[in-house]
Amino acid sequence: xxxxxxxxxxxxxxxxxxxxxxxxxxxxxxxxxxxxxxxxxxxxxxxxxxxxxxxxxxxxxxxxxxxxxxxxxxxxxxxxxxxxxxxxxxxxxxxxxxxxxxxxxxxxxxxxxxxxxxxxxxxxxxxxxxxxxxxxxxxxxxxxxxxxxxxxxxxxxxxxxxxxxxxxxxxxxxxxxxxxxxxxxxxxxxxxxxxxxxxxxxxxxxxxxxxxxxxxxxxxxxxxxxxxxxxxxxxxxxxxxxxxxxxxxxxxxxxxxxxxxxxxxxxxxxxxxxxxxxxxxxxxxxxxxxxxxxxxxxxx
Length: 300
Prior knowledge:
This protein is an alpha+beta fold and 300 residues long.
């Protein structure tokens, strides 16, 4: 009797779920097993994702607590001039090479503008002919053989042809590329014999004066930053440090990044620094300027 009861109880007892073999379970049991398996996997995934996030956030907050706020900067030349062609033509001669120092007024390159020269010669011939006609009309007027209107028209023709010669002189001046200031050749875009169109770049020139640096600093620096403030800069390419002096401060704060653009000046003798280099800078707080220290700048 007990054996039979045991067999009946064993038959009515619910077997434990086997997640690896769902084929023998009823439909409702299958859904319950799948749900439990999904929840268990979701909990494991969340636990795995949360652990590296906390580990990554910890170092990110350390620099602000450990030291001063650093900002990136870009080195700029004191003057830059991208020389380009105003008239189309063919490049006849290039007188400089990449990196050459140049002085103001030096002809860096010239174009073959022989067609303009020919047209100018024709305009000069018309100008001389107009002058002769005017002089003849003026003499005839003195002899009472020419009206004042004829003399006036002859004078107008002289002025018209003279202006035409001036136009060709201006166009011929555009065939030469002259250095507008002392500097160095930064880039040459063309070669001798190459045809170029109007507006095509020819030579990039950078000035040889005191270098500048452009920075985007935190907007809370505006409370104490002013013209003449000092920053300590480290140029990545040279590995050296240089003092920077603030020369210009933008009149607008960028609303997205909460930064403001400033320009600074390098010392006079920085021959090893070139435009285009970059690095990091730290502001130097004036004495007794607590707002500067609170903004993350370095103490003087």
